[in-house]
Amino acid sequence: MKSSLASLFLGVFLCAASPALAEDVELGPDAFDLNKATAEQLMDIPDANITPEMAEAIVDMAKNKPFELPEDFLKVPGLDNHTLQAINPIEHGGTLWYDPDAELTLAPSKC
User: Fold this and answer.
1) How far is CA 47 from CA 3, 42, 95, in A?
2) Which of 34, 76, 79, 100 minimizes the number of CB atoms within 10 Å of its CB?
3) CA-CA distance, 49 to 33, in Å (whole number)?
4) Looking at residue 50, what DSSP letter applies?
5) How confident is the model at residue 1 (pLDDT cuts 50, 70, 90)?
6) In this predicted structure, what is the pLDDT of residue 109?
């Protein structure tokens, strides 16, 4: 019974979140593909506090296996939920983008 309720809540959550993950989002003029970003672009994301080491790790990881889900960025050494929230990856055209003009799609952590 508990697993059925958990599945139901997960389904409702995913349905509610799906508009934020839709691929028909219009991107602003300063948006860039996170899987093709340079280390400099990544370090310039406001409030993300991305170090040169983290930026290089993101670039290297994206070359080997592009990021498909926002949570994939948490595999980068040193990257935490605060940084992920600042990056605010937006799905567009089958990849993840950073758009400084986008609304926040990731809920702030309550931890």
Assistant:
1) 38, 11, 22
2) 100
3) 19
4) -
5) low
6) 53
Whole-angstrom CA distances from 48 to 2, 36, 82 are 38, 18, 7
Give the amino acid at 7.
Answer: S
CA dihedral defined by 72, 74, 50, 101, rounded to 10 degrees?
60
End-to-end CA distance of the chain: 28
Compute how many other C-beta atoms are within 10 angstroms of the C-beta atom of residue 40.
9
User: 8-42: per-residue pLDDT in tens?
Assistant: 444 444 444 444 444 467 899 999 999 999 999 99
The structure's pTM equals 0.72
Instruction: For residue 98, give the DSSP letter.
Output: E
- Where do the DSSP E strands lie in 3-80? 32-33
* Cβ partners under 8 Å of residue 90, min gap 6: 25, 27, 31, 96, 97, 98, 99, 102, 105
